[in-house]
Every structure is written in C-alpha cells, then in structure tokens.
Design goal:
By secondary structure, the protein is an alpha/beta fold. It contains 8 helices and 5 strands.
C-alpha cells in the first residue's frame, strides 16, 4: 500500500505510522527523521538544513521533494510506503503526483488523524515537562497547531476531492486508534480489489 498519514502535533501520528508500516510491511518515511539524521551526521544536506532551520526558515520544497524521490526509489519502498510529514504544501502534492506517475503507481489512501485540540495541548505540555522541552510553552504549541491546520487544510481538501481522504478519530488508546485505522484500510483494500485492472 502507498499511504500518507496526516495529523497535528501530538496526535500520535509517528506512533501510528510505525505500527501501520510494521503491520503492512512497508517503510514509514518521515522527512523530519531524515532531516534530523542528516543534521546529526553533519552531512552536506544536514548542514544546509540546519542553517535554514536555525534562521527560522522552512526547508525549500525542492530539497524535500528530492529527498522523498530518492527515498521512495529505494528497494524497500518498491511495493509501498507510508509518508509521515510529507507532503506539507500543495507544491509537494504535485511533486508527489509526478513521482508516482513516473513509476505508474498511485496512492491508496490518505489517513488524517483528527484530535481534540485542548486534549492534545495538554498532552504536549506534559511531554514538554517530561522531556525538558522548555521552549514548548502553551503559546508555542497553540501556534504550531494553528499553523498545521492552516497548512494542511488545502492538502486535505485536495485528497478529499480525489476520494482518497480517510478521517480517523485519533483520540483514545494507541490500540483503539490503530484498530480504527486498520478498519479503514481494510475497506480501502476491499475497494481496490473490486476495481477492474488498470482502474
């Protein structure tokens, strides 16, 4: 399966991405993880990204697109993948369309985890205290949530129009949310298998 997982900070997206990827035998590809690994290893890309983010800027689409293009071309992603944190802009949506078209593939579903903002803010504040993230104040967290909603709404709309968006309640235990996601994906698989070849 070829999937995208959307969800605001604190929605448990990373946890669910790892569980879904393991269950379906496809790699969970996080652009954030790739950037952090490159920064940690001080690669040329890492140094470039570090300089951009240190000044408060966003990593340009062309850099992010190139990373994703290389990653999904690796052998472990030939039969499918789960993208976490990409795409984040409409430009990246179009770039991903091109990448998939080049290999005659298509997305199976876009899973969006929906959450209660107040509960997630509380969850992130607790995590900030546990992990010593002094910069994660309530104001900062709420601004991140606002930016996510602002940036992601157009993407969700695009995928909704294409019939790919699957909204899943992200509240509850990890097991409960995983169960809801798997139920949705079962329906997606059933729908795909019922289509004529080439559809």
């Amino acid at each position: 399966m070829r999937l995208i997982m959307l969800g605001p900070p604190g929605a448990g997206k990373g946890t669910q991405a790892a569980l879904v990827s393991a269950a379906h035998g496809v790699p969970a590809i996080s652009t954030g993880d790739i950037f952090r690994a490159n920064i940690r290893n001080e690669t040329p890309l890492g140094l470039q990204v570090k300089e951009i983010t240190a000044s408060g800027g966003y990593v340009p689409d062309e850099i992010t697109n190139a990373i994703v293009r290389d990653r999904i071309a690796e052998t472990d992603a030939v039969d499918g993948f789960l993208l976490d944190g990409y795409p984040r802009t409409t430009g990246q949506v179009l770039a991903l369309d091109d990448m998939l078209a080049e290999t005659d593939h298509a997305l199976d579903a876009v899973v969006e985890l929906t959450v209660d903002t107040e509960e997630v803010v509380g969850r992130l504040l607790a995590r900030a205290v546990e992990q010593g993230r002094a910069d994660d104040t309530e104001d900062v967290i709420r601004e991140r949530m606002r930016l996510y909603a602002e940036e992601t709404a157009p993407l969700a709309a695009v995928y909704r129009e294409r019939g790919l968006l699957q909204r899943v309640d992200g509240m509850g235990t990890v097991e409960e949310v995983t169960g809801r996601i798997e139920q949705v994906l079962s329906g997606v698989r059933a729908g795909r298998s019922g289509r004529p070849a080439g559809a």
